[in-house]
Design a protein that fits this description.
Number of helices: 7
Radius of gyration: 21 Å
Shape: globular
Oligomer: single chain
Order of helices and strands: EEEHEEHEHEEHEHHH
Number of strands: 9
Strand order of the largest sheet: 5-4-1-6-8-7-9
Structural class: alpha/beta
Helix content: 25-40%
Distance between the termini: 55 Å
Largest sheet: 7 strands, mixed
């Protein structure tokens, strides 16, 4: 599929203590997250995003999972959402830091594809349309770089036209800081690259991000039901199990009560009756 763009999904195996380390010890809604919680949220975010990206793989773009692995560690099996999907492959990240790894993976992909992009796996609600928009903007000549700004000062996606592919674009960047986006824009200016900015997004890196995602889901469901909530069923189910979506917890208890009533022949609670005691 050399005529298609290539999207690199940067991720790690979901191992406790190795992923989402900035979440470990964070307190969210009265729950203190541990390493296992952080790994579970990483796996849920990866699954939600992979399922969505799979819809575009093979016809809108080539999807390449770029794994961050320890030396000698074998290439993992693909996420279940991508197993057996056409237009999907996997590689190891290589390089000493994130900048080197990004450039190396993008440069390798650019040898086979006209446009390339990279996205992290901590964006369970990232719309497929945003990825397609980034490639379309470059293909139509609107810019040389498409950048998806994140709320914390970084970026969640970077897409590059051929002339933008330079190691300088990723050099002298204070990764995992609030200055990443600003420094990247400085590099673009230095290199004479035109930038198209995508809609802002949110990484799930810290406790505040988890709380914000839960609040977004709860607010959307309060207005329009589950069908209006952000499209992240795995992350949503995890947050509900953690007690961060009180309405969702009540709903789950209600469904269980209805099923129990149907079996036993007893009546279900009347509408509006609390299924769990208020906090």
């Amino acid at each position: 599929m050399p005529d298609l763009p290539c999207l690199l999904l940067f991720t790690k195996p979901a191992r406790a203590g190795r992923v989402k380390t900035r979440l470990i010890g964070a307190e969210v809604g009265g729950r203190r997250l541990d390493a296992a919680d952080a790994a579970a949220l990483h796996a849920a975010s990866l699954g939600d995003l992979a399922e969505r990206l799979a819809l575009g793989a093979g016809h809108a773009f080539r999807l390449r999972v770029a794994w961050d692995l320890a030396p000698g560690e074998p290439l993992p099996a693909p996420p279940p959402e991508l197993a057996g999907r056409p237009g999907v492959d996997a590689v190891r990240q290589r390089g000493c830091g994130l900048g080197e790894r990004l450039f190396a993976a993008l440069a390798d992909a650019a040898r086979e594809h006209p446009l390339v992009a990279a996205v992290g796996s901590d964006h369970p609600t990232l719309p497929l349309a945003t990825v397609e928009r980034s490639f379309a903007a470059l293909a139509e000549g609107d810019g040389d770089v498409a950048l998806g700004p994140s709320h914390d000062g970084g970026y969640y996606l970077i897409a590059l036209a051929p002339r933008a592919l330079s190691p300088r674009l990723f050099a002298e960047i204070d990764w995992s800081s609030e200055w990443v986006r600003g420094q990247t824009l400085e590099r673009c200016s230095e290199l004479g690259l035109r930038v198209v900015e995508l809609p802002p997004g949110r990484d799930i890196d810290r406790g505040d991000d988890v709380a914000a995602l839960a609040a977004d889901i709860a607010a959307a469901e309060a207005v329009g039901g589950a069908g209006e909530a952000p499209d992240c069923p795995r992350a949503r189910a995890l947050l509900a199990r953690w007690g961060l979506l009180p309405g969702a917890v009540s709903s789950l208890h209600g469904e269980a009560k209805k099923r129990s009533s149907a079996v036993s022949g007893t009546s279900a609670p009347t509408a509006g009756a609390p299924l769990v005691p208020p906090p």
